[in-house]
Amino acid sequence: MRYERKFPSTVLTANALEQLVLGHPLGFRKVYPDRRINNVYFDTPGWRTFHENLAGVSHRTKYRLRWYGPASGLIEHARFELKKKENLLGTKIIHTIAGKITLADAAAIPGSLPTLLQNALFPTLVNSYQRAYYESTDGAFRLTVDEDLSCNAFDPKIWAGRSFPPELRVVELKYGREDDQRLDEFTQYWPLRLHRFSKYVMGMQLAFSV
Question: Which residues does the UniProt record annotate as the domain VTC (predicted)?
């Protein structure tokens, strides 16, 4: 399991944030090309995942179908993820989806996976955002920056993204539990404040006005 610390910002431009990351004493450098991330989120009929996330329940699971690249059209190399949270630590269980699927196929995926996932899940939300990837010189810290976020209530026939605030950017710092004592090495040179943030919760609030 690893720590995942989030630093949302609505005050820094993309260029200012990139310079802040690249100028950090931990020596962050880009390690992958930027790419588009797309998700279909799943929940129970009573939106248990949404309410647990909103309430900050310490042990919870988020279910999503994820793929990279264009949001619309045929989906290739998709994976169904169970993202488990235990207090501040997180881990993923990943099921690779073979072949090409459409957005309409997504609703049936949980029922086709092992019994662990057959939990009356149905698709609630789709979202999409652009992600940049960085890593510290010693490889202990990974950092991602997400921007250009959009979402929509799940509809297999429509991908009409509703934009998050355009100035919103979400920085996430990821590192192993063995490096938690080193967090100050990052935060003492970092002006953004640590804050709870969920793209799923914010997307549901935008899409359903909840």
Answer: 33-207
